[in-house]
C-alpha cells in the first residue's frame, strides 16, 4: 500500500461553492441545472419550440408555393427550402436519437446550412426587389433557431440572430427601394425573422433561472426537518474522508509498508491529518438548521446575514422554520432582478420574558428582520402569510426599507 | 409548487410584455413611414388615433408584467382592438395595401401576445378566442377579402403565441416534478449524512486514540518502540475499518471502550484502556483512588480526553517514564490529579497555548462544566488538577 498523499491534508476534491459535497445529489443536480444548455425541464420546451417552428415552416412553404409563379428563377429558393427542411429534420432526428444535446461541431455545421438557406433565398428573390414580401425560407430560419435555444448557450443563438438581422438589413438596403408601399412589408419580415429567437432566448433564460432558484429553494427546504443542531451536509463527507485517510496510514504502519521511524514527509502528513480530524470533531456541533440553510443556499447566502449567538433558531418548530425560510425567500425573491443593495439581516434573541414564558411552558424567541432595499408596499400577500405562520409580528420602516419584529412562541427547551 | 406556479405566471407575463411591446414598436415604425397611414377618422388623421391606443396598450402590457390581475389583460386587448379598428376600418382605405401589412405585427403579435397568459382556464381560453375572432374580423373587413395574406399571417401569429404559452405553462409542472424528486432525494441524503456524521462524531474515544496515534506518527514515532507503535496502529486501523463498514467498534485488546449510547459509563474500566495505551508508548501510569465512578457519557469523554492529553504532555515533555493519576470524587465533582516528577517548567516562561493545554484540556472540561489548573516549577515536576461535574 502506498500513502495517497492527495487524500491527506489537502482536500482531494474541490468543494462546491455552496458548501455541498461535490458528490451529493444536490450538487449534481445544481451542476446539471447550471450547465450551459442545461436540460432540466427544457427538453419539453425544446419540443414546443420545434412544433412552433414546424407550423411556421408549413405556413412559409405554402406561401412560397403560392407565389412560385412570380419568381424569375425559382431554383435557388427551392434548394433553400430543401436545405432548410433537411437541417430541421436532421436536428429533430439527432435530438431524438442522441438526447437533448448538440455538440459545437453540429452547431457550426447547422449555422452554415442556415446561412446557405438565407443566401439562396435572397438570390432567388433578388430580381423581385422586394425582400420583405417574398422572403420565405430566410424568414423561417429565424424560427428554425427556436429549438436551438434550449440546446445551445444563449450567446450563440443571439449571435446567429444578429447575423440574420444584418443579412436581412443588407439585402433590403441593396435590393428594395423604400417607399410607402414596400416599407411595412420589410419591417414585418424583419420582425418575423428576428423577434421569435430573441423572445425565445429571453423566455428560456428566465425559465432556467426560475428552475435554478426553485431547485435551490427545495434543497434548502430539507433543513426544516433537521434537529436543533446539525453538522450539515459537508461534515460527514469530510469526516469519512479523513477517517479513511487515517485508516490507510495506520494500516500502512501496522503492516510495515510505511517504515518506522517515519520519513519527515509522511510525519507531516500525519500531523495535518490529526489537526483536520480534531477540527472536524469539534466543528458543526453548535450550528443550527438556519445557519446551514443560509450557507448552503446560493440565493440566501449572498443576501442574508444571520446573528443567532444563542442558537435559538434550533428551537423553532418545523412549521415556524418553514414560515421563516419562505418569508425571507419571498422578501428577497420578490424582486425579479434583485438590486445590488438588497439584503436581509436576521437577529434571533435574546429570549424575552412575557406572560407566556412566565408560565414556564414556553419561551418567546424574538426575531428581528432588518432589510435594506425592500419597500413595504412591494411585499406580497404570500410573505405576510408566511410570517403569520411564525407568530405575531409587527412591521415598521427604517430608512425606507421594511423592518419586521416577530415573536415566536416555542416550547421551553428546559421543559422538553 | 405554490411559489413555483407564481414564478411561471410571472415568466409568462413578462414574456407577454416583451413580445407585445416589440411588435407594437415594429408596427408603429411602419405606420409612421410617410404615406402609409393616410385615411382620416372624421377630422383627425388616423395615425393620431392609432398611436395613442397603441401606447395605451403598451401601458397595459407593462401592468400585465407586474400584476396578476386579469383586468389588465382585458383592458390591453380592448386598447389593441381599438387601435386595430382605427387602422383598418376607416372609409377610404383601399383594402389590400401597405397599411394592412404595417398593422400585421401589431394585431398578429402585439395584441396576440396576451394569448400567452390565456390558456390556464376555460374562461381565459374563451377570452383569447373572442379576441382572436374580433381581430380576424377587423382584418377581413379591412382587407375586404375573406382569405388574404394578411389574414393568414395574423392567424398564424395568434396560433403560434397561444401554442407557445400553452407549452411554456405545461413545461413548468414537468420541471417542478423533477425538482421535487431531487428535493426528496436530497432530504433523504441529508438525513443519512447527518446520522452518519453523528455516528462518527459519537465515536469520540475511538477518534481520541486515533488522534493520539497520529500525533505519535507526526513525531515520526520517536520515543516509542516500533512494535508497540505497529500494534497500536493495527488496532486503530481495525477500529476505523469497523467504523467505516458501519458497525460500532467494540475494542477488545484496548480494554472496554464504551462506545454504546448508554447514558452513564463507569470511569474505572475506561481508565484501564488509557493506561494500556500509554504503557505501550513507554509511560507507566499508576492509578490511585476511586476505581468506579459513573459519569454521563459526554462528561466521561471530556474527562478522559483531557486526562489523556495531560499524560501525553508528560510523555513528551517531562522526561520521565512514570506518571501518577489520583482520582477522587465527592457528591458533585470528580477530580483527577496528574503528577509527574519530571523536569517541570516555569509557568510564566511557557504559555499555556504552546502546550495546547488551553484548547485540548481546559476548553474540553469547560464545555461540560468543569475546569483544570496547572502547577509547575523548573525541576519540581508538574501537577495538573482536572475537575468535572458528576
From TrEMBL, chain A:
It comes from Frondihabitans cladoniiphilus. The keyword Transmembrane helix applies. The chain crosses the membrane at residues 44-66, 78-97, 104-125, 131-150, 157-180, 186-204. This is Signal transduction histidine kinase. Keywords: Membrane, Transmembrane, Transmembrane helix.
From TrEMBL, chain B:
This is Histidine kinase/HSP90-like ATPase domain-containing protein. It comes from the Bacteria. InterPro entries: HATPase_C_sf, HATPase_dom, Sensor_HK_TwoCompSys. The chain crosses the membrane at residues 18-37, 43-63, 70-89, 95-118, 125-143, 149-168. Keywords: Kinase, Membrane, Transferase, Transmembrane, Transmembrane helix, Two-component regulatory system. Residues 303-389 form the Histidine kinase/HSP90-like ATPase domain. Pfam families: HATPase_c (PF02518).
Amino acid at each position: 500500500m502506498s500513502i495517497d498523499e492527495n487524500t491527506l491534508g489537502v482536500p482531494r476534491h474541490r468543494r462546491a461553492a455552496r458548501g455541498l459535497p461535490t458528490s451529493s445529489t444536490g450538487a449534481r443536480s445544481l451542476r446539471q441545472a447550471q450547465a450551459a444548455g442545461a436540460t432540466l425541464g427544457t427538453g419539453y420546451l425544446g419540443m414546443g419550440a420545434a412544433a412552433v417552428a414546424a407550423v411556421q415552416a408549413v405556413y412559409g412553404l405554402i406561401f412560397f408555393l403560392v407565389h412560385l409563379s412570380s419568381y424569375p428563377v425559382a431554383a435557388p429558393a427551392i434548394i433553400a427550402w430543401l436545405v432548410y427542411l433537411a437541417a430541421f429534420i436532421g436536428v429533430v432526428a439527432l435530438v431524438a436519437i442522441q438526447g437533448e444535446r448538440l455538440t459545437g461541431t453540429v452547431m457550426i455545421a447547422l449555422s452554415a446550412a442556415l446561412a446557405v438557406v438565407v443566401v439562396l433565398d435572397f438570390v432567388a428573390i433578388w430580381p423581385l426587389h422586394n425582400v420583405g414580401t417574398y422572403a420565405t425560407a430566410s424568414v423561417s430560419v429565424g424560427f428554425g433557431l427556436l429549438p436551438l435555444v434550449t440546446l445551445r448557450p444563449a450567446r450563440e443563438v443571439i449571435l446567429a440572430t444578429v447575423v440574420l438581422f444584418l443579412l436581412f438589413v443588407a439585402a433590403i438596403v441593396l435590393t428594395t427601394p423604400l417607399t410607402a408601399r414596400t416599407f411595412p412589408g420589410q419591417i414585418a419580415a424583419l420582425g418575423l425573422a428576428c423577434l421569435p429567437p430573441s423572445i425565445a432566448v429571453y423566455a428560456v433564460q428566465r425559465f432556467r433561472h426560475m428552475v435554478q432558484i426553485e431547485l435551490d429553494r427545495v434543497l434548502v427546504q430539507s433543513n426544516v426537518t433537521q434537529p436543533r443542531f446539525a453538522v450539515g451536509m459537508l461534515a460527514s463527507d469530510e469526516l469519512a474522508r479523513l477517517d479513511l485517510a487515517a485508516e490507510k496510514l495506520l494500516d500502512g504502519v501496522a503492516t510495515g509498508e510505511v517504515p518506522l521511524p517515519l520519513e519527515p514527509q509522511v510525519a507531516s502528513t500525519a500531523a495535518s491529518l490529526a489537526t483536520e480530524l480534531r477540527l472536524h470533531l469539534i466543528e458543526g456541533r453548535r450550528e443550527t438548521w438556519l445557519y446551514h440553510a443560509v450557507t448552503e443556499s446560493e440565493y440566501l447566502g449572498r443576501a442574508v446575514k444571520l446573528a443567532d449567538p444563542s442558537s435559538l433558531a434550533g428551537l423553532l418548530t418545523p412549521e415556524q422554520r418553514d414560515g421563516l425560510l419562505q418569508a425571507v425567500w419571498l422578501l428577497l425573491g420578490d424582486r425579479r432582478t434583485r438590486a445590488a443593495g438588497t439584503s436581509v439581516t436576521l437577529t434571533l434573541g435574546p429570549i424575552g420574558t412575557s406572560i407566556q414564558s412566565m408560565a414556564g411552558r414556553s419561551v418567546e424567541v424574538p426575531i428581528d428582520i432588518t432589510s435594506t432595499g425592500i419597500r413595504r408596499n412591494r411585499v406580497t400577500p404570500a410573505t405576510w402569510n408566511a410570517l403569520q405562520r411564525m407568530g405575531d409580528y409587527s412591521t415598521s420602516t427604517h430608512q425606507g426599507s421594511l423592518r419586521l419584529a416577530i415573536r415566536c412562541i416555542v416550547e421551553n427547551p428546559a421543559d422538553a | 409548487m405554490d411559489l413555483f406556479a407564481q414564478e411561471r405566471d410571472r415568466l409568462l407575463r413578462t414574456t407577454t410584455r416583451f413580445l407585445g411591446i416589440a411588435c407594437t414598436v415594429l408596427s408603429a415604425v411602419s405606420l409612421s413611414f410617410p404615406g402609409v397611414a393616410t385615411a382620416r377618422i372624421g377630422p383627425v388623421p388616423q395615425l393620431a388615433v392609432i398611436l395613442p391606443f397603441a401606447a395605451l396598450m403598451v401601458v397595459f402590457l407593462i401592468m400585465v408584467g407586474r400584476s396578476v390581475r386579469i383586468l389588465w389583460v382585458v383592458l390591453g386587448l380592448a386598447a389593441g382592438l381599438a387601435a386595430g379598428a382605427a387602422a383598418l376600418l376607416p372609409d377610404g382605405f383601399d383594402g389590400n395595401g401597405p397599411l394592412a401589412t404595417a398593422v400585421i405585427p401589431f394585431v398578429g403579435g402585439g395584441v396576440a401576445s396576451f394569448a400567452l397568459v390565456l390558456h390556464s382556464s376555460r374562461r381565459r381560453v374563451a377570452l383569447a378566442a373572442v379576441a382572436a375572432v374580433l381581430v380576424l374580423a377587423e382584418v377581413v373587413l379591412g382587407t375586404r377579402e375573406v382569405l388574404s395574406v394578411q389574414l393568414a399571417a395574423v392567424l398564424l401569429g395568434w396560433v403560434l403565441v397561444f401554442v407557445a404559452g400553452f407549452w411554456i405553462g405545461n413545461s413548468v409542472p414537468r420541471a417542478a416534478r423533477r425538482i421535487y424528486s431531487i428535493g426528496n432525494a436530497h432530504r433523504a441524503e441529508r438525513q443519512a449524512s447527518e446520522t452518519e456524521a453523528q455516528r462518527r462524531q459519537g465515536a469520540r474515544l475511538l477518534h481520541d486514540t486515533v488522534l493520539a496515534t497520529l500525533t505519535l506518527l507526526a513525531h515520526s514515532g520517536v520515543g516509542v518502540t516500533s512494535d508497540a507503535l505497529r500494534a497500536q496502529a493495527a488496532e486503530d486501523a481495525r477500529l476505523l475499518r469497523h467504523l467505516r463498514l458501519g458497525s460500532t467498534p467494540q475494542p477488545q485488546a484496548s480494554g472496554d471502550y464504551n462506545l454504546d449510547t448508554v447514558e452513564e459509563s463507569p470511569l474505572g474500566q475506561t481508565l484501564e484502556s488509557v493506561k494500556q495505551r500509554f504503557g505501550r508508548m513507554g509511560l507507566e501510569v499508576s492509578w490511585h483512588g476511586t476505581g468506579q465512578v459513573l459519569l454521563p457519557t459526554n462528561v466521561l469523554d471530556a474527562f478522559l480526553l483531557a486526562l489523556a492529553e495531560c499524560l501525553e504532555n508528560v510523555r513528551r515533555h517531562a522526561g520521565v517514564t512514570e506518571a501518577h493519576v489520583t482520582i477522587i470524587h465527592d457528591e458533585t465533582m470528580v477530580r483527577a490529579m496528574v503528577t509527574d516528577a519530571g523536569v517541570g517548567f516555569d509557568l510564566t516562561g511557557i504559555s499555556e497555548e504552546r502546550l495546547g493545554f488551553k484548547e485540548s484540556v481546559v476548553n474540553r472540561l469547560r464545555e461540560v462544566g468543569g475546569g483544570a489548573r496547572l502547577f509547575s516549577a523548573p525541576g519540581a515536576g508538574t501537577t495538573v488538577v482536572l475537575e468535572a461535574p458528576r
